[in-house]
Amino acid sequence: MGQVGNDMNDDAPMIPYRPYMPSTDALSAARAFHEMIALRRSVRRFSDRPVPQTVIEEIIRAAGTAPSGANKQPWRFVAVQDPALKRKIRVTAEEEELAFYKDRAGETWLRDLDAIGTSWHKPFLETAPWLIAVFRLIRSDDGSQTYYTHESVGIAVGMLLVAAHNAGLGTLTHTPSPMRFLAELLGRPDNERAYMLIPIGYPTDDCTVPDIHRKSLDEIMVIDRAATRDQ
Asked: DSSP label at 224?
């Protein structure tokens, strides 16, 4: 097919696009990927089995390929492996979580959390060999403006989770509230805001996960709803 439309500035510097070509047809490739990613689960029981720094680097490198508003790439991934620092993060996170469970979460929220068996205890923040603290840049390091930072960092986190799963590692998206303590403990500058804390490592041999089920395709996908509304 020829070019149908173009919203690009023709004066911007361009290079040829290099598409990824799967070794099978598109449908087979899509099904194989779904079979792989459908096994991904949030893990709370981590082994202390070491994960080489080079593996973490490649996972973060993959996350850094995410699209972002005006290509500002408004993310920072702080990889933590020091046991003493992980201990400090756990202690402070548990203090915030205890206050959340006791005072800030409503009954409905707590009831929903009961269904997946979580509590304010967060031992995985110490047992996981790595913690990745994700920060959102409200300004670039040079002081310039950033755009769509929540959306951009969210996409990058999703890609990080997929990359970790592809490497055989378990992850958990942990969001202690509030998270301001992370910037202080990790010495981050004032243009960065804590976004998420991700323990990463190998699950234990006896790891279990909540017995939950994902919505069916019919529940999450709609085709041409707007086109059929007036019919």
From this structure: S
Beta carbons within 10 angstroms of residue 134's beta carbon: 25
Tell whether omega for the bond before 129 is within 30 degrees of 0, i.e. cis: no
Question: At the top level of CATH, which class does the domain 49-205 belong to?
Answer: alpha beta
Asked whether 45 and 203 are in contact (CB, 8 A), the reply is: yes
Distance, CA of 182 to CA of 41 (rounded, Å): 25
Q: Report pTM.
A: 0.90
How far, in Å, CA of 156 to CA of 17, rounded?
Answer: 21
State the Cα–Cα distance between residues 132 and 197, nearest whole angstrom: 6
Instruction: Give the whole-angstrom CA distance, residue 175 versus residue 126.
Output: 16
C-alpha separations of 66 from 60, 91, 95, 166 in Å: 10, 32, 33, 16
Tokens representing 148 are 């769509």
pLDDT in tens, 189-225: 999 999 999 999 999 999 999 998 999 999 999 998 7
Q: Quick one: tokens of 67?
A: 């699209």
DSSP state of 215: P
